[in-house]
Amino acid sequence: MDIDEIPIGRFGRLCGLSVHTLRHYDDVGLLVPARVDESTGYRWYRADQLERARQIRSLRWTDLSIDDTRTVLDDPAGAAAVFEAHRARLERERSRIAASIGDTERFASDGLPTSGPPAGARPVQIKLLVSDQDAAAAFYIDAFGFDDDVTQRTADEDFSGFMFGRYGESDFFLVHLQTADYPGAAGPATIGLLVDDLDAAHRRALDAGAAEVLGPHESQGMPRSSAVRDPDANVVWLYQG
After folding, report:
1. DSSP 42-54
2. Which residues does the UniProt record annotate as the domain VOC (predicted)?
3. Phi-psi group of 99: left, alpha or beta (phi > 0 → left; psi -120 to 50 → alpha; rest → beta)
4. Which of 131, 160, 129 has the alpha carbon at shortest distance from 234?
5. Nearest-angstrom CA–CA distance, 233 and 188
6. For 227, which of 17, 40, 66, 214 could close a Cys bridge (C-beta 3.0–4.6 Å)?
7. What is the Cα gyration radius of the chain?
8. Rounded CA gap, 153 and 158, in Å?
9. What are the residue ranges of helices labelled H in the chain?
């Protein structure tokens, strides 16, 4: 045994990692001991490995994955990209937690929702084919005052859309913008919106870049209405509420 070698238990106390964790980091190749006793399997470390061990502890404390931790330590040139992607994941997780806290507070103050979706099937979603999701989202926000919401969160990406009401409740409806490479993408669609002021809504849509299909008009047996075409050729009917 080299007198400079540190047994795993003492090494763990010096770097703040448990023996179990050190064994795991050895198994995955993140922190390999200087020597492993062939007869007992006991692990020994060098003093100059303490810095790496402490850096690993700090990085893992931020919930950085083992693979990303390895990249940061072994490929410093790639560290900035790893940190940016990890920050984005943490932001998504913070948003998810904030939404859960909001729901919990709402349930505590207002009680659990008692209304559910009606029996049988009902429309809850429409997908509009667009060429540029960001540009299309900006159009619908400017033209109709839609609010962009995160409708699905994954570990790597957030998916957004325009959500009305809450999922599982009777007023829920979702408008998704999808590009042609999305599985099952169809052609341009037609959607109808109920508005408070038809003339103002029609003008605002044109100002935001829509093309007029039909100006505000009266139709027998129907509310007063108009129609515009969005920049991606989807038709939006507007109905006076």
Report:
1. -EEE-GGGHHHHH
2. 122-241
3. alpha
4. 129
5. 6
6. 214
7. 28
8. 5
9. 8-15, 19-27, 50-61, 66-74, 79-110, 133-144, 198-207
Amino acid identity of residue 145, one-letter, is: G
Under 8 Å between Cβ of 213 and 230: no
* Whole-angstrom distance, CA of residue 210 vs CA of residue 230: 5
Rounded CA separation 154/221 (Å): 46
| Domain 125-240, second-level architecture | Roll (3.10)
State the Cα–Cα distance between residues 48 and 28, nearest whole angstrom. Answer: 20
pLDDT in tens, the chain (241 residues): 555 899 999 999 999 999 999 999 999 999 999 999 988 989 999 999 999 999 999 999 999 999 999 999 999 999 999 999 999 888 888 887 887 888 889 888 888 766 555 555 567 778 888 888 888 888 888 888 888 777 666 666 666 788 887 766 777 788 878 888 877 667 788 888 888 888 998 999 999 999 999 999 988 877 888 999 999 888 888 888 7
For the CA atoms of 115, 120, 125, 128, what is the dihedral angle to 10 degrees? -160
d(C-alpha 105, C-alpha 111), whole Å: 9
CATH of domain 6-74: 1.10.1660.10
DSSP 140-185: HHHHH---EEEEEE-SS-EEEEEEES-TTSTT-EEEEEE-TTSTT-
pLDDT at residue number 114: 62
